Structures are given as C-alpha cells and as structure tokens.
Amino acid sequence: MKLDKSETFKYFKKSDRLSLKWDSYFLVYDKIFKKYKNKKIKFVEIGVANGGSLFIWRKFFGKKAKIIGIDANPYSKKLSKYGFKIYTGNQSDPNFWKKFFKKEGKVDVVLDDGGHKNLQQISTVHYTLPYIKDGGMIVVEDMATSYLKKEFYNPSKFSFISFCNKIIEFINYRSGLIKKKMNFYSKKIYSIEFFDSIAVLNVDASKCFKSSSITNNVNDPSLNEMRNSFHFQKTRKVIKDKLPFLKDSKFYNKLERKMFYRNRLLNFKENLIIKKILRNIN
Ligand SMILES: C[S@@+](CC[C@H](N)C(=O)[O-])C[C@H]1O[C@@H](n2cnc3c(N)ncnc32)[C@H](O)[C@@H]1O
Description:
Number of domains: 2
Radius of gyration: 26 Å
Order of helices and strands: HHEHEEHEHEHHEEHHH
Structural class: alpha/beta
CATH topology of the largest domain: Rossmann fold
CATH class of the largest domain: Alpha Beta
Bound molecules: S-adenosylmethionine
Shape: elongated
Number of helices: 10
C-alpha cells in the first residue's frame, strides 16, 4: 500500500488511542491539510469518540493549532484533560452551532466524522459554512453512506451527494452564462473536491465572483465555433458541391444550421451515444 510515506498514517499508527478510519483517507488528509501545518489554525472535528484522531491532528498540525472536538456522547468530554477543547452536542442542531460559534468565533477547518446520516452531514455544511474563514474548508467523511440503503435509505434526493450536486449548481451560478442570482453558497464555496468517500468544500469568498467573458483583444477571424459542425458533413458537402450557388445563400445557410447541426433531434441522438458510453463503464 502507498501509505508508507503518509504522515497522518504514521501518527495514526503511533496513536495509543483507538481511532477508526478508512485506510484511503490518509493520502487525502496529507494532501488537503498540508497547508495548515504549523499554522495558528482552529481545527474542529465532529465525532471524536475515544480521541484517537484528535491526537493525530495535534501531532500533524503542531502546537500552534487549536484542536476542538465535538461529540454527541458526553463520554468524550474527558478528553479535555489532554488539552483539547471538547463540546458535547448534536451536529444537526442549529442551536448547538449558534452557541458553539458564539464561543469559538470563525474557524479554519471543520471535519465531519460524526453520525454520517444525510441530515447530519448536510447540517454540518449548512450551519458551519458562515463561520469558515477564507482559505478554510469543510471536510465530510464517510459520504459513501449516500449510496447505502440499509439504515441510510439512500440513494435519495435527500442524500448528501444530492446536496453536493446542488452545491455544484450553486457554484455554477457564478458563471456569466447562467442567469441566476448568486446565493450564500455561491458566494462562499470556491470549489468542491471528491475522493473515495470524502467531500472537501474549499471556502473562499474572496474568489467567488460573477464571472464575465473577457478577451485579450487579438483579432483572429479564423476562430469559428465548431461544436455542432460534425453532423451530416457528407450530406452538406454533396449539396454544396452539386449546388455551389447555395454557398452564399443566407437562407440556405440558416436552413442548414437548423436542420443539420443545431437541432434537438441531433441532441437526442447524442444522448443515445452517451447512454451507451455509461452502460459500457465496468
Ligand atoms: C466514527 S466515530 C468517530 C471516530 C473518531 N473520529 C476517530 O477517528 O477516532 C463517530 C462519533 O460520532 C459521534 N456522533 C454520532 N452522531 C452524532 C451527532 N449527531 N452529533 C455529534 N456527534 C455524533 C458518535 O458519538 C461517535 O463517537
């Protein structure tokens, strides 16, 4: 396995407290958390159980980081004696979050390893997003529950992955092509990354603006949009070769566009090909 070089895996193995993680997570942690090492950050983990992971974070981020744990089980409170700040609460409860952020202020990273149910994961994002600093992130673990039937009742339009799909839509509201008003998510979430069972929401309001099309003003008349030009190429060529005067006919060119390359039926034909591609993924 490629974990020999993973720093977080090294601390996981060395931890003398029980921690329950999936092995694929460590390469992801190394990659996404690297930029916070030895920085004065506030790192929040939801779901700390016996504290195994808290010790990993302390070693990895260094002494300047404030490591905060949240768990529904009051048992975890005893981890306070090791210098962690521990809160007992329910990640789906908006009142819990209100009180939490009143005390802690804005934070850099929220890592959700709590109950993994749809409402719990969605609540984490919804209630913590306003309090994530620019350059920070929300990391949701075990999101493969979005595909689990037993206990999680997924796939469903209420799953966390369906929620992520909405977030992707909101990110695209920033596009100048889309006539949609940017909402709070569009204004805060810069990008979203997916790994095996982990979603990373990169937060940075300073990079979230309505985009506009720009050009560097170099005149290049050869630039033609070609996306629809591949349909009926032969037929169009035959028509134009046999009836060359049509080349300059505005009416014919308009008709050709409508019939041969900007046409809903052709889109339907392309969808059938896409269906076939999807069916052949194995
Ligand atoms: C998988 S364990 C966490 C393991 C820990 N991160 C580690 O690596 O050692 C999940 C924890 O989430 C807590 N939990 C479950 N539902 C929760 C909720 N709604 N709010 C907060 N914590 C919750 C459980 O009490 C449990 O301790």
